[in-house]
Specification:
Layout: E1 20-21, E2 27-33, E3 39-45, E4 55-56, E5 67-72, E6 78-83, E7 87-92, E8 102-104, E9 113-119, E10 125-131, E11 139-144, E12 151-152, E13 159-165, E14 171-177, E15 183-189, E16 196-199, E17 204-211, E18 217-224, E19 230-235, E20 245-247, E21 259-260, E22 266-271, E23 282-287, E24 295-299, E25 302-303, E26 310-316, E27 321-328, E28 336-340, E29 347-349, E30 354-357, E31 366-374, E32 380-390, E33 409-413, E34 418-422, E35 430-436, E36 442-449, E37 453-456, E38 469-477, E39 480-488
Length: 490
């Protein structure tokens, strides 16, 4: 409910940057101008049944600097955005992240303009478009999310803008201004390399591309001559001569920024009210005509809810570990499984839905693996598996095999925050370890087999490292329950 009749740049209007879906699809981040006409980062529910009240995330200091181009981190706990064409910032999301401090991502090269930020699907890199001097063109760069030396990905005598990542993080798509009347969409390997044409229409502008979550199609803004832009969908899995599909052509705006939701079922964009004399856009979303998306139900024996952004998994050092994943689909559509960002030595077998690894990394090391399930209609579910290397607890205690285990074994590594419980063996019973903070809020629930090690790697429900302090735990196996407290000292 923003002012459409106000001039562009006025208070209470939407800014000209991109919009961003939260990883679970429940929120949309965008820019809104405050009373001082500065762009601030806001987020609002993506479904009206959850309300339409916006909440402010960023608070730029007084002056001419605007915040723009919000990009949601894959765990859903942070948003990355730009400020004043000069800074890349990241900030924890209230009610999700324990730390909501605004942090500058340091870039060791001084750019004249630095803009169009986009965080990678594993949360490790930020892509952006930048210009070194007035004599240079805008090109695509990446920098670690912790800051550092930027890596140049594109070059040449044209401007490259608005990078977006492929779901597996291997490719960046962007648009290139070819002439004053034409622009085309290209892709490039995320670590730089040969640039490939995605769509280059004659006498028109194809801009602001975005991957679908299954990487099968692109959405983009299309503008022919002086006509209003509209959303275009293009399938890249078939012949390049296949025609593109126009979507909602009456919903147009200069920076249209069409984006599909993380589950593939909805399209969001900025557009003016069709048929109105509005000067500035509103934010819209529509459900696509398709089947409902699949949902992960179990990761390594742990039940997961549809809105869960991540799950914590412990893998024993110097031993073979197998994690089986499962999903369901409301219409019983065929399911295809995949895993991205596999660390050295990891493998994933789609037919058996099994992630395997023999870790030799140091105890306490954590890696993020993106698990994905898709259906033919374009429905997607994804979850981040936060895999932590833990000491091997062994299948036995005091020389007894696991099937004869009758004692509790509790080991606490206070420095690394790793807590390990080996329970008595009670037939085929499961063992459940639940961890709480001192206020009684549940931080983790880990399941395993009785008689084997159940490990909490010291991370919260959002995937952040648990801070130093006292924590409570409860272990349940069969009819047995054990509760106590333990301490993390980092």
């Amino acid at each position: 409910n923003l002012c459409g009749a106000c001039s562009n740049g006025a208070a209470n209007t939407i800014g000209d940057g991109v919009i961003g879906w939260s990883p679970n699809g429940t929120r949309l981040a965008y820019e809104r101008r405050n009373a001082s006409k500065q762009c601030t980062i806001m987020f609002t529910p993506s479904d009206p049944t959850a309300g339409n009240e916006s909440r402010q995330l960023s608070f730029p200091p007084p002056g001419p600097r605007d915040d723009y181009d919000p990009s949601w981190a894959p765990l859903g706990d942070q948003v990355v955005y730009g400020r004043g064409d000069s800074l890349i910032l990241r900030k924890g999301v209230p009610d999700i992240a324990s730390d909501t401090t605004e942090v500058v991502i340091p870039v060791t090269v001084v750019f004249l303009h630095l803009t169009n930020e986009s965080i990678s699907p594993d949360g490790s890199l930020v892509a952006f478009s930048a210009q070194v001097t007035n004599a240079d063109h805008f090109h695509i760069f990446t920098v670690p999310v912790t800051g550092g030396i930027p890596k140049q990905i594109t070059s040449g005598s044209t401007d490259d803008r608005y990078p977006e990542w492929s779901p597996d993080g291997k490719t960046i798509v962007f648009y290139r201004n070819l002439t004053s009347a034409t622009a085309a969409v290209y892709s490039v390997p995320a670590d730089s390399g040969t640039i490939t044409t995605v769509y280059a229409p004659a006498s028109a502008k194809a801009r602001l591309p975005h991957y679908s979550p299954d990487a099968a199609i692109f959405t983009m803004s299309y503008q022919a001559g002086s006509a209003a832009p509209y959303t275009l969908t293009r399938d890249t899995t078939i012949s390049s001569s296949t025609r593109s599909i126009a979507n909602y052509p009456s919903y147009g705006y200069a920076t249209l920024t069409p984006k599909l939701s993380p589950d593939g079922t909805r399209l969001a964009l900025l557009a003016k009210v069709p048929g109105s004399a509005d000067l500035t856009p509103q934010m819209w979303a529509v459900r696509r005509n398709m089947n409902l998306p699949p949902q992960f139900t179990s990761i390594g024996g742990q039940s997961v809810a549809d809105t869960t952004p991540s799950v914590s998994i412990s893998m024993n050092q110097n031993h073979t570990n197998n994690v089986v994943v499962s999903a369901s689909d409301p219409e019983s559509d065929a399911l295809t499984y995949a895993a991205y960002f596999l660390h050295d030595g990891m493998s994933f077998t789609p037919t058996t839905r099994t992630l395997s690894w023999y870790p030799t990394d140091s105890v306490g090391t954590t890696f993020n693996v993106k698990l994905v399930v898709t259906t033919p209609s374009g429905g997607v579910d994804a979850i981040i598996a936060r895999i932590t290397v833990v000491p091997y607890a062994g299948p036995s205690r005091a020389g007894r095999p696991a099937q004869e285990q009758t004692e509790w074994s509790i080991k606490a590594d206070a420095r690394h925050g790793i807590f390990t419980v080996t329970t008595p063996t009670l037939g085929t019973s499961d063992a459940t370890l639940t961890v709480f903070d001192v206020a009684g809020r549940r931080l983790a629930r880990i399941r395993g087999r009785s008689g084997s090690a159940v490990v909490w790697p010291g991370v919260t429900a959002s995937g952040a490292r648990a801070a130093s302090g006292v924590y409570l735990y409860r272990v349940e196996v069969g009819t047995l329950t054990r509760s106590d407290k333990w301490l993390i000292v980092r």
